[in-house]
Design goal:
alpha/beta; 18 helices; globular; Cell division control protein; Cdc6/18; cytoplasm; ubl conjugation
């Protein structure tokens, strides 16, 4: 080789002298061969000198089923992903060995624990399942109402009530999906009233969905009434979080529920909200005419047995050994059903418990060498037990729920007691059962300063109110701005005060009052 020639230059014509590889490339090639379990290629083929025959075509492309495949921990069929567009290298001296070939059996060096936890967290999310456990009766009544009124062209209204997490929206969504073909000849409009800026905003939102021209004030309502009483397909209007449309005089709710009673109306209205007595309390005028009164459908809280079935069905979708211990699952179902019967809360508690265990496992080991002959489905590194569920329940609901009854003094955690005392003081001063969250937080902060207690911020205050709502103590009417959300007592003041007058601290707060 000439003194100025590069060590990577091709051999000249008429000579078979091989060039020497660069030391760095030789080392990289050796590492790559070891990582992929490929035989080490003899030195000196960096410039294809040792390839006996030039490749006549481009490398074989990977099949679509193998492209973008995710690596599932503990899955023996999964292999490390190759870089996008990678194929057999000409350095290997030929086309890529098929995956089915037994020439170079592939073994995994390490297994990362955790695929079972990822799957468990995925199935525990509150998505709409194919079948809703414990809601067969309610689902059947929803389906019957829609088919009778929409397909039968009979205008009418239905009010669906139930506490949060009892399956109202999930059941209706399931029925709408199942009856999609049957309802294809009608127009379906679904609005979440929580997303509306004000109760009156429901009318422009509905007009936009129906493709009506822009109008304002009474003209907009007249335009909607004219459209809903003209010839055309039936209109199914679903209003979730219906209680957000409550206003002074309840003009918006009365207008909506009276539309199905207009002559030649083609509107079927379905409203969903938490309050059981919304129609009796806010729409008493509708009771004067039986035809105008909406049909009622109530979703009761889930029982322990129903929550157990829901959790078992979700976790049964995870391959391999159970992630949750059976006793832990039963414990979660029993505790949540005793407080709220909220299926979303039960799913959330189990999912958070899985996250706790997953973090513990990750902390113990990051990579674990595989024993020889590992089974196709790897065992669960660590199951979710009673202690994990109890720990999460304590964080979500307070110590009494997680650890069992400890007497009247532990009915509520300290911060919840102070918050309830603040609400009682506000109710006494303003002679109103309903206050804004911002006002409640201001009063709560004032009480904490006076008692020399640490106070939580407004976001944490909202979390406390949500927990108390799940226990049936408070009612929360959410708004776009959390500070404007309305909070009201679900219990009588005397009954709540009796439950709180069990410590010197609570008694001192209520005695001092507000200044």
């Amino acid at each position: 080789m000439a003194g100025g020639a590069s060590p990577f230059s091709s051999r000249g014509a008429g000579t078979d002298r091989r060039t020497q590889p660069h030391p760095a490339l030789a080392q990289l090639r050796l590492q790559a061969a070891l990582c992929h379990h490929q035989p080490v290629v003899p030195a000196g083929d960096d410039n294809l000198c040792n390839v006996p025959h030039a490749l006549s075509c481009s490398p074989a492309k990977r099949s679509k089923e193998n492209q973008g495949r995710r690596l599932l921990f503990g899955d023996p069929s999964a292999s490390p992903e190759q870089p996008k567009g990678s194929g057999p290298s000409p350095r290997r001296g030929g086309p890529e060995t098929p995956r089915s070939s037994g020439q170079h059996p592939r073994t995994r060096l390490f297994r990362q624990e955790g695929s079972c936890y990822q799957q468990a967290k995925q199935v525990l999310h509150a998505a709409v399942p194919e079948r809703l456990q414990g809601r067969e009766k309610e689902t059947g009544q929803l389906r019957q109402f829609l088919l009778e009124h929409v397909l039968g062209r009979r205008p009418g209204s239905l009010y669906v009530s139930g506490a949060p997490g009892t399956g109202k929206t999930a059941c209706l969504s399931r029925v709408l999906l199942d009856c999609k073909d049957k309802l294809a000849g009608s127009r379906t409009v679904v609005l979440n009233c929580m997303a509306l800026g004000s109760p009156q905003s429901v009318f422009p939102a509905l007009a936009q969905q129906l493709g009506l021209p822009v109008a304002t004030g009474r003209e907009r309502i007249r335009s909607l009434e004219k459209h809903l009483t003209a010839q055309g397909p039936m209109v199914l209007l679903v209003l979730d979080e219906l209680d957000q449309l409550e206003s002074k005089g309840q003009d918006v709710l009365y207008t909506l529920f009276e539309w199905p009673q207009l002559p030649s109306s083609r509107l079927v209205l379905v409203g969903l909200a938490n309050a059981l007595d919304l129609t009796d309390r806010s729409l008493a005028r509708l009771g004067a005419h039986l035809s105008a009164k909406p049909r009622l459908l109530h979703f009761p809280p889930y029982t322990k047995e129903q929550l157990t079935l829901i959790l078992q069905e979700r976790l049964g979708q995870v391959a391999g050994d159970p992630v949750l211990d059976s006793a832990a699952l039963q414990f979660c179902a029993r505790k949540v059903s005793a407080v709220s019967g909220d299926a979303r809360k039960a799913l959330d508690v189990c999912r958070r418990a899985v996250e706790v265990v997953e973090l513990e496992v990750r902390g113990q080991t990051l990579l674990k060498p595989l024993p020889k002959g590992d089974s196709p489905v790897s065992p669960v590194p660590k199951r979710v037990g009673l202690l994990h569920i109890s720990r999460v329940l304590s964080e979500v609901f307070g110590d009494r729920l997680a650890g069992g009854s400890r007497g009247a003094q532990d009915t509520f955690p300290l911060q919840q007691k102070v918050l309830l005392c603040s609400l009682l003081l506000l109710a006494r001063r303003s002679h109103a059962r309903e206050v804004t969250l911002g006002k409640l937080h201001d009063t709560y902060s004032q009480v904490c300063r006076r008692q020399q207690l640490p106070a939580v911020d407004q976001a944490e205050c909202l979390s406390l109110v949500t927990l108390l709502e799940s226990r049936g103590v408070l009612e929360l009417k959410r708004a776009k701005e959390s500070r404007l959300a309305k909070v009201s007592l679900m219990l009588e003041e005397a009954a709540l005060e009796h439950r709180l007058q069990d410590t010197a601290l609570v008694g001192s707060i209520l005695t001092q009052g507000l200044h």
